[in-house]
Amino acid sequence: MSEAAQTLEGWYALHDFRAIDWNAWRALSAKERNAAQDELLSLLHQYKQAEENKTGSTAFYSIVGQKADFMFMHLRETLEELNEVETQFNKSILAQVTVPTYSYVSIVELSSYLAKPGVDPMEDPDLLARLKPILPKAKHVCFYPMNKKRDGADNWYMLSIDERKTMMRSHGMIGRQYAGKVKQIITGSVGLDDWEWGVTLFAEDALQFKKLVYEMRFDEVSARFGEFGDFYVGNLLDESKIANMLAL
Ligand code: 76R
């Protein structure tokens, strides 16, 4: 048996994608629509407080294309808290006019492939901050789930840890060239959801998603072993963008 990579886990993550039923939204009275919007803003305010109290973080983005209209990415300490946040939204007025289109459950994960030997990760404040990250308020988000292949000679899980380390080093080197342009949060989902990882990328310039993901396609880890689910890409929603989105 080859050796599993050591992983560190942080906050649990829920990516929650919704489409808006515009006919149902239109059918609400102006009063109900206002109440729905106020309620959404108050939920967002509550999420912000979780961030200030360092008990979690939430990102809220519109989604471009037909896969969804918006998504929340919630990070919380426990699965129970994630469940509460999800249920609380489900009880809101806006949720009554949305259709769930996709969700993803995972946990912030750092793997030890590139860890410095002899350093106790729990003593490294940078690492600890990355396990419980405040999600960036970048203009754009890109999310997709992925697996590492288990297919004949291309079985990631049958490689020795040294082979995997070498490949992950190359992966990390490509990634580092995007420092300051793309922020990645890797969440592990083995045993939690249908794919093995969720990849969430944040950037001010959405084109950098294409540049980064394309460049990685040529790198061995992705070229030989990467299997990808659906891609979701979107734009940051703040108060004025929410008002625009919901205005009739
Ligand atoms: O955590 C670190 O920064 C150390 C280096 C590193 C690891 C261990 C790293 C760096 N990644 C790691 C692990 Mn990554 N990453 C992806 C994708 O589309 C594709 O082809 C793949 C999707 C992108 C775009 C990306 C970006 N990474 C992982 C893992 C876990 C693997 C395992 O445990 O087997 C996955 C699934 C994965 C996938 N990676 C980086 C990036 C970027 C931009 C970096 C540099 C980050 C930085 O230096 O700040």
Description:
It catalyses: harderoheme III + H2O2 + H(+) = heme b + CO2 + 2 H2O; Fe-coproporphyrin III + H2O2 + H(+) = harderoheme III + CO2 + 2 H2O; Fe-coproporphyrin III + 2 H2O2 + 2 H(+) = heme b + 2 CO2 + 4 H2O. By secondary structure, this protein is α+β, with helices and mostly antiparallel strands. It has a single domain (7-246), classed as Apc35880, domain 1 (Alpha-Beta Plaits), CATH 3.30.70.1030. Helix content is 38%, strand content 31%. The protein contains nine helices and eleven strands. It has an eight-stranded antiparallel β-barrel, surrounded by four helices. It has a two-stranded antiparallel ribbon with strand order 6-7. A hairpin with an 8-residue loop joins strand 8 (182-188) and strand 9. It is elongated. The mean pLDDT is 97. The structure holds ligand 76R. The site of ligand 76R has 25 residues, from strand 4, strand 5, helix 6, strand 8 and strand 9.
Shape, please? elongated
Low-confidence stretches: none
Q: What are the secondary-structure elements, in order, as H or E?
A: EHHEEHHEHEEEHEEHHEEH
Number of domains: 1
Q: Given this structure, which CATH class is correct?
A: Alpha Beta
Structural class: alpha+beta
Oligomer: single chain
Query: What is the CATH architecture assignment?
Result: 2-Layer Sandwich
Strand content: 25-35%
EC number: 1.3.98.5
Function: Involved in coproporphyrin-dependent heme b biosynthesis. Catalyzes the decarboxylation of Fe-coproporphyrin III (coproheme) to heme b (protoheme IX), the last step of the pathway. The reaction occurs in a stepwise manner with a three-propionate intermediate.
Binding site for Fe-coproporphyrin III: 130, 144-148, 171, 184, 222
Protein name: Coproheme decarboxylase
